[in-house]
Amino acid sequence: MKKIKMTTPLVEMDGDEMTRVLWRLIKDELILPFVELKTEYYDLGLLNRNETRDQVTIDAAVATQKYGVAVKCATITPNRQRMEEYPQLTEMWNSPNGTIRALLDGTVFRAPILIDAIKPAVKNWKKPITIARHAYGDVYRGIDFKTDEPGETTMTFRGLSGKKQRFSVQKTDGPAIWQGAHNKEASIRSFARACFQYAVATRQDLWFSTKDTIAKVYDGFFKTIFEEVFQEYKDKFAALGLEYFYTLIDDAIARVIRSEGGYIWACKNYDGDVMSDMVSTAFGSLAMMTSVLASPDGKFEYEAAHGTVTRHYYKYMKGEETSTNPVATIFAWSGGLRKRGELDALDDLIKFADALEQACLDCLNAGIMTKDLASLVEPGIQARGVSSRDFLAEIRARLELSLNCCHAISSALAMRL
Ligand code: NAP
Ligand code: MG
User: Of 10, 144, 173, 248, whose CA is between 20 and 30 Å from 404?
Assistant: First the structure.
């Protein structure tokens, strides 16, 4: 069988620890035998970020802006403990995801991969719920403080023009705690645009929720901006039969729990932080969550939602075989290749991405899975927990079969023509 050709490179960002090991295996077993892979490679492994003084992360983000599609392996965000583990580090480098997100002005969309053998904790959920979390501002860029006597807190805004606006927050009759938060119009607009853009790209309805009955100006501004940006997408939504739906966060939660899934739920920063953990846990496993960073101008970076799976890596380094789940990382690759295929009109590449995902699902539905999943299957379903290496071999066998079948069918059809 001839390998599938690509025309534009995919930006490839390598990473750290166990996911770096899986990255290599996935490429060798599941991609390179079938695709004439064209990537622009950036090594975002911690040591190379250190060596390049993190320039490699910036270069990778710039390349994503240029080519439009990237696929990223999980990376270590160093903390104090990592500084001890890697004494050669010259700085506690920032999170690469944070750097890339800032440069692409993007929003992260997280969605679970569903399989028949593992049922969501919410029994009526049948399709994935994608959470879009606004990743700037509010309490994450706020200040909070404590006072210990009666008094008043005021807030003052001083404009560059010299204009001043002063507000009384509250007068208190005793010790109190306080919080000041902000968000920026430009950031909210980018968030809204990324959400509408992603809804169109994935053909899903978009829900958005805030608490604008209480925070009338603050959350009301989010609501207004979303409504304004929606006007730019109204016709596209109508043509695709999609719906944009705004509701109060309390009502959204009730509706989400009663729904079948199959939509994007856009959340403010805190709501997204909390709700994405709730939704992913209810769907099953962090190892089955995909994540894509989408920019308001339609650039995409695909990755797994989990980290570098350090505990498994230490076992691997001791020579032990691990059963680390590669599914979310494989779906990052298939997501990137499919998007590349769509942008470059490469039908075979799109079909390959579909076949790769289907091979993973077939394997899982046949009860062959890594150990993290084997413990979650419904009672009565036979599941076999295998090593990552064996799991990839099983996926490869199914992928080969399906690609050979497709090839044989299309050759037969061509002969008949
Ligand atoms: P983690 O790597 O997601 O792993 C946490 C635990 O979840 C693992 O120890 C494992 O549980 C389970 N797990 C996660 N992914 C799995 C998989 N694919 N297969 C099987 N089990 C899986 O999170 P962490 O330990 O908090 O963070 C490790 C490193 O990753 C940190 O240095 C952090 O900076 C980085 N990180 C990177 C990203 C990113 O690049 N996007 C995201 C998050 C964290 P058991 O050990 O019980 O088997
Ligand atoms: Mg959280």
Answer: 10
